[in-house]
Amino acid sequence: MDMKYLFSIFMCVWMLNVQAQVKDTVPPSKGTGDVQTKVSVDGKVYSAIVTENGDTLILVDMDDVSVTSLRKFANDEEYKKYQKFRRYAATVFPYAKEAIRIFRETEYASQHLSKKERKKRLKELDKQLTAEFEEPLKGLTKLQGKIMMKMIEKELDQNMYELIKGVKGGFTAFYWNHFSKLYSYDLKEGYRPGDYPILDAVLNDFDVSYRIENESSLKYYNLSELRKK
Predict the structure, then answer these.
(1) Is 49 exposed, middle or buried (0-12, 13-18, 19+ CB in 10 A)?
(2) Which 3 state secondary structure label does DSSP give 48?
(3) pLDDT tens digits for 40-65?
(4) pTM for this structure?
(5) What does the angle CA 113 – CA 116 – CA 122 come to, to the nearest 5 degrees?
(6) DSSP of 75-93, one letter per residue?
(7) Which residues contact 169 (CB under 8 A, 6 or more apart)?
(8) Bridge partners (DSSP) listed for residue 36
(9) Strands 56-59 and 35-41
(10) How far apart are CA 189 and CA 150, in angstroms?
């Protein structure tokens, strides 16, 4: 259960800052309305563009993604919706993929660390992840946040309510679920293939899975150092 705590960080930081989006949005500049800025992800600084609508587009070179787009669309409105969802998915893809990596690494490390060692590292990761992801997640719109959560839920095959409940308890999960409904998001809904065909097509275009090759490939855990402490 300890590993699931990391995902409550992603969920809670995003939900806590939904209301702050309006006041935290960088004012659009004259001309195109877009503002160039810098954002920090995992200690790395990336160029980004804040559009006149308040959307933050991070400019990064992504890994290859599989393309399994819908062949036909009922009308232009449906096609435009697909394009919008895909743009937003591209924005949150780095965060969702990193979240899955954290999950897989914690899952792996839990098999090689004592309960005490694991607990200590999780406390350190709590602070580290909050520092690295708080600002970038503030820039996400509600729809972008939803798509990111669906990416994570799809890969883990578990809804956010259960992830938070497993770590924080039923009361906390109930609180966040109630709060999230104010912004049209049900934490118990999870990812259900077939409910939203356009979203299915978009998510199938992005592979957020992560496989650990060996212990030396771990990014968030140095098992040798942790065992020495």
Answers:
(1) middle
(2) strand
(3) 666 566 677 777 766 777 766 555 55
(4) 0.67
(5) 80
(6) SHHHHHHHHHHHHHHHHHH
(7) none
(8) 49
(9) unpaired
(10) 10
